[in-house]
Design goal:
The complex is a heterodimer. Chain A is an alpha/beta fold. Chain A is 42% helix and 9% strand. In chain A, strands 2-1-3-4-8-7 form a 6-stranded parallel beta sheet, sandwiched between helices. By secondary structure, chain B is of the alpha/beta class. In chain B, helix 1 packs parallel to helix 7, helix 8 packs across helix 12 and helix 9 packs across helix 10. In chain B, 59% of the residues are buried. Classes of the chains: A alpha/beta, B alpha/beta.
Chain lengths: 371, 325
């Protein structure tokens, strides 16, 4: 990765100029990564015991998510995310209870139990756009979000994230092309984790990199070591600064690795060689950041153990709380389709509720299922 | 008041709402200085600047995807798809994104966007400048589907669509763009979405139609009156989603004989829904089978388009059939 920016190497040694960051910020970044590992672990257990249907493992890609998150101003910037950016959510202070509400699809879920788990949607403390399953659709949307801010003379920017596979979608092309033409304040962050489910990069593109694709759109394309949280922070910060200054969009390719399956339904041993896992295990972004933080005197083993215990407990408590909440009411199948429910849908809703009520399936008149 | 064609009324509607509401933007291919291939956006860039009315790259997916983003962040984009036939690259953004955003975010994010697109035959456009794809969109929960048939309605319905909090597919019958003129009030006015318009009064049979089929059906009704002295009620549906179901059922009950006309293909076309609605809710009032007059279940032809499109003769025959059953 000679053309790839790196600040902390695989052994945790500083090899480049570290950005100036307060200890407090560094520890917040660290904690977001640890939280993600705890969240992943809890979700895997919940899925394997049949309590939730699905999750998306994030192990290995957290430095990319956190480095980017730390470069944003949550008060004014928008995020049009894909589904593998949990560490970004933790860094930005999105409520873990809200995340677990989505994992369980309960009555408090912002998506009202309508989406599969990990399809988060938040407006607070940051505009975290509702996640879609079809890939790449958020990319042109981020451009629209950014164009609106530019039009109103605001200083906010939009960050959109997507995987290597999504660079093949229509949305990637449309988004980068529009942003290039309109000079929109957008940062395109490609999380190149090497695998689009089971398809490796050489099946995705014949380009020498994903970053180089920016050139075709008249956009700077930058490649960064995605397992190096400080390098990602630096590159995304520079891109955000450019966008805020009205200098247009940037495409960033963060080279990382998905240290597990695509989802809880996937078995990566069918297509990834063990030797590849072993090689990337040595580049684990958490180990690397932790080693560096220790060498800088920001963190010691005792603190590390305490943070891990805290995040594990936090995840356990949030999962339990979410599991104990009721399902959304039956009527929520029908609400939020349009702002006002048209008469034909109202009729369908009433028919549905009375259908189940008549069959004594314990639906009350408001359409509430027991848990 | 001035006499406007439908395309002028569309232009006037855009200008009126852009003056009223700064968040309204017009975007699409060739909508800027050229004013659109049909001149629906003529002079808007000149009047409002290229920040408010602008050309985009030739990318339907981009136009709608960017439009969704603008709409989620406080703007009211009016996206033009040059011909409805070209909309399919944007199908994902419309069906999976715009239509479902309110639902999947529990109302946190919404898409107050209008997609204007000329549809239908009558200009010798062949396969790819003639299609009527309204059924694809009426089938998708979360979208509204609006089709005007007069200059007055075109302006009023367009303004209502742009002001609507949900994404609206606004299908413009290009065959009627310059087919006639009508008095159109100056300034703001709206026409309610989800209200049918009774074009002619009558109780012997009812013909449901929309868009470019409205004048065709009106002419057929006139000929029936002339030859058989029967009074045919022509009902312009105007909004396919949400449908004014009560008005449709009332007209069906009043008349007992129903013809449904559209130029889109028959199979799973909008007429199937009207027919099923009446069959489920008013079958006891029917004096004759419900009859559909539609385009054929083929792609749209070029040279022989006049044989493909329902015309007054075919509608006339269908009305006779239900009258004589």
């Amino acid at each position: 990765m000679s053309d790839t920016l790196q600040i902390i190497d695989e052994s945790g040694k500083k090899v480049g100029k570290a950005p100036r960051l307060k200890r407090e910020t560094l520890l917040r970044m660290y904690r977001a990564i640890v939280s993600t590992r705890s969240f992943d672990d809890r979700c895997m257990k919940l899925q394997r015991t049949g309590r939730i249907g699905f999750s998306i493992p994030n192990k290995g890609v957290e430095a990319t998510s956190v480095g980017a998150a730390a470069a944003l101003d949550a008060a004014q910037d928008w995020i049009a995310p894909h589904y593998r950016d949990f560490a970004m959510m933790f860094y930005l202070g999105i409520d873990v209870n809200g995340m677990f509400d989505n994992m369980f699809g309960n009555a408090d879920d912002n998506a009202v139990g309508r989406q599969m788990p990990v399809h988060f949607s938040f407006r607070d403390p940051v505009n975290w756009l509702s996640i879609s399953s079809p890939l790449g659709t958020q990319i042109p949307q981020a451009v629209g979000v950014a164009m609106a801010m530019k039009q109103r003379g605001e200083k906010g920017i939009a960050l959109t994230t997507f995987g290597d596979g999504s660079t093949s979608t229509l949305g990637f092309h449309s988004g980068l092309n529009f942003a290039g033409v309109f000079g929109s304040p957008v940062v395109f962050l490609c999380q190149n984790n090497q695998w689009a489910i089971s398809c490796p990069s050489e099946e995705q593109t014949a380009s020498e990199s994903y970053a180089i694709k920016g050139e075709a759109y008249g956009i700077p394309g930058i490649k960064v070591d995605g397992n190096d949280v400080l390098a990602v922070y630096r590159v995304v910060s520079e891109a955000v600064k450019r966008a805020r200054a009205g200098e247009g969009p940037t495409l960033i390719e963060a080279v990382t690795f998905r240290m597990g399956g695509h989802s809880t339904s996937d078995d990566p041993s069918r297509y990834v060689e063990q030797s590849e896992f072993d090689a990337w295990e040595k580049r684990d972004p958490l180990f690397r950041f932790e080693t560096w933080l220790k060498s800088e005197g920001h963190l010691d083993d005792e603190q590390i153990a305490a943070i891990r215990a805290e995040t594990d407990a936090e995840m356990m408590a949030a999962a339990k709380a979410a599991e104990a909440k009721p399902r959304p009411k039956l009527g929520t199948i029908f609400s939020d389709v349009w702002e006002q429910m048209p008469p034909h849908l109202d009729a369908q809703m009433n028919a549905c509720i009375s259908h189940f009520a008549e069959r004594d399936e314990a639906v009350d008149e408001k359409g509430e299922f027991p848990l | 008041m001035s006499e406007l064609t439908m395309v002028q009324a569309v232009n006037d509607g855009l200008r009126t709402i852009m003056k009223e509401d700064e968040s309204v933007l017009v975007m699409g291919e060739d909508v800027g200085p050229k004013g659109g291939v049909f001149l629906a956006t003529e002079n808007l860039t000149k009047e409002f600047g290229k920040e408010r009315c602008f050309d985009t790259p030739l990318s339907e997916d981009g136009i709608i995807g960017v439009g969704v983003g603008l709409a989620m962040n406080g703007m009211k984009p009016v996206c033009e798809i040059q011909f409805q036939d070209f909309i399919f690259p944007a199908f994902d953004q419309i069906v999976s994104e715009a239509a479902k955003m309110r639902y999947r975010s529990g109302g946190q994010y919404t898409v107050p966007m209008t997609i204007r697109t000329p549809y239908g035959g009558g200009i010798r456009g062949g396969l790819y400048h003639s299609q009527s794809g309204e059924a694809y969109f009426a089938h998708t929960a979360g979208l509204k589907v609006v089709i005007p048939s007069t200059p007055y309605d075109a302006k009023g319905l367009l303004i209502s669509s742009i002001m609507d909090p949900d994404p609206v597919m606004f299908f413009e019958p290009k065959a009627l763009y310059r087919a006639g003129r009508e008095e159109v009030p100056e300034g703001m006015y709206t026409v309610d979405l989800s209200k049918v318009r009774e074009v002619t009064q009558g109780g012997d049979a009812v013909v449901f139609c929309y868009g470019a089929m409205v004048p065709v059906c009106t002419e057929a009704a006139r000929r029936i009156k002339e030859s058989r002295n029967k009074d045919i009620r022509v009902v312009d549906l105007r909004t396919l989603m949400p449908l004014d179901e009560e008005a449709v059922l009332q007209a069906a009950r009043d008349c007992g004989r129903v013809v449904m006309v559209h130029e889109a293909p028959r199979f799973c076309g909008y007429g199937s829904e009207i027919s099923a609605l009446i069959a489920e809710n008013a079958i006891e009032y029917m004096e004759a089978p419900i009859k559909r007059v539609t385009g054929f279940d083929t792609p749209f032809p070029n040279t022989l388009e006049n044989y493909y499109l329902p015309d007054a003769r075919r509608v006339f025959d269908a009305i006779e059939e239900v009258l004589d059953f």
